[in-house]
Amino acid sequence: MNEENPNKVRSIVRIKDIAEKAGISTGTVDRILHNRGRVSEEVKERVLAIARELNYEPNMLARALVSKRDFKIAALVPDPSNDVYWEAPKKGIEKAEKEFRQYGVVVTLLFFNLFDVESFKRAAEEISETECDGILAAPLFYRESLTYMNRWKRMGIPFILFNTHIPDYEPLSYIGQDSYQSGILAAKLLHYGQSQPGKLIVAHIDEDVQNSSHLIKKEQGFFDYFNQLPNYNNPIVHAELNGSCDKQAFHSQLDELLRNNPQSNGIFVTTSKAYAIAEWLQANKQLQIRLVGYDLLENNLHYLKNGIISFLINQNPEGQGYYGIYSLVDHLIFKKKVPSIKYLPLDIITWENLHYYIESV
C-alpha cells in the first residue's frame, strides 16, 4: 500500500489541468467554474466532478488582481469634529482602503453629527440611495439604525457594524468590544480598589442613553457584577451628564451630583470622556475618588499619568475601522466566510503599560 508523503508539497491545480483531463478547452472549463455562458449539463457535471477529484481551489487573489471592476464600500461614521474619539476609526478605515486599493476597493466616508439624529438619518439615506457593494456603519442611534439595516437587508447589501452591536437584522459581522463584559470589567476594577464602603457612580456623558444599546449593556454589566456579590449593599448611582464642552455648566452638574452623593469613592465613565470628570476631581481635590473610563485620548492620558484616572479600557477604535473594511473585502473579493462577531480584546491600560499600546495603535 502506497502512503502519501505528508511532507510532499501539493501542486496547484490549474484550469488547464482540468481541461486536459476532461478533453475540452480551457475556455469551456472557465465558463463552467465561473458560471458564465451556456454549457451542456453533461459537460458541466463532468468538469465539476474532475475539479472535485483534483481538489481544485480558485485563486481568489489572482482573480481580484485582474478584476476590472471597483468594489464600492460606504462607511457611516460619526464626525470626528464632534468628538476626537472618532478620528481613530476613520484612520483605521483609511489605512485599510490604502492596503486594498490595488484590488479595486474604493471607500466613501459619510459623516454624521453624533448629537443629531437627523444628521445620522441623512447620511444613512444617502448611503441607501447610492450604489455600493458593502456598508460599514457605527449604528449609534438604535431605533433609526433598525430602519436602515432592514432596508439594506432587503436590498441585499452586506453590512458590518462596529462600536455598537445590534444583531436584530443579522449584519454580516460585528466588530468591537463586548460592551456587557467591559461593564463587568470596569466594575471589577473599581471593586478591587474599594478599601471602604461608599457609593459608586455610573456616568454617561453627552449621550442619549435610551437610544444607545452599547451604553445600556455596559451599565447592565456593571450592575450585574455587583448584584451577584454576596452581602454587597453599597449603592450604585446612575448619572447622565450633558454639555461637557461648557466647562462651567458641566462642573456645576458634578458639584450637585457629588453633593447629593457625599460618600462616593468610585466613578465609571461609559464613554471616552473620563477626562471631563478627572478635571473636576483634580480642581476640587477629590483624589480619593477612583475613576475608570475608556480610550487612549490625549486628554485621558494626561490624567492617567497624573493618577487622577486609575484605569482606561482600550476599545481599539482604529482596529474597529480597519477590521471592518478588512472583513468586507474578505467577503466581497476573496469570498471568505466572515465570523458573525469579532470581539476585540478588553485591554486594561495603566500609566505603567501605556507605552506598549501607544506604539501599537
Biggest sheet, strands in spatial order?
A: 2-1-3-4-5-11
Please identify, by name, the CATH architecture of the largest domain: 3-Layer(aba) Sandwich
Q: Considering the protein shown, what is the CATH homologous superfamily of the largest domain?
A: Response regulator
Strand content: 15-25%
- What count of structural domains? 3
In words, what does this structure look like?
By secondary structure, the protein is an alpha/beta fold. It has 3 domains: 15-58, 434 Repressor (Amino-terminal Domain) (Orthogonal Bundle); 69-176 and 317-343, Response regulator (Rossmann fold, 3-Layer(aba) Sandwich), CATH 3.40.50.2300; 179-314, Rossmann fold (3-Layer(aba) Sandwich), CATH 3.40.50.2300. The protein contains 14 helices and 12 strands. It has helices at 15-22, 26-33, 41-53, 60-66, 87-100, 117-128, 142-155, 179-192, 213-227, 247-260, 274-283, 298-305, 317-332, 354-360; strands at 71-78, 105-112, 134-137, 159-162, 173-176, 199-205, 236-241, 264-269, 290-294, 311-314, 341-343, 347-349. Strands 2-1-3-4-5-11 form a 6-stranded parallel sheet, sandwiched between helices. Helix 12 links the parallel strand 9 and strand 10 (311-314). The chain is elongated. It starts with 14 loop residues before the first helix and ends with a helix. The model is unreliable at 1-10 (pLDDT under 50).
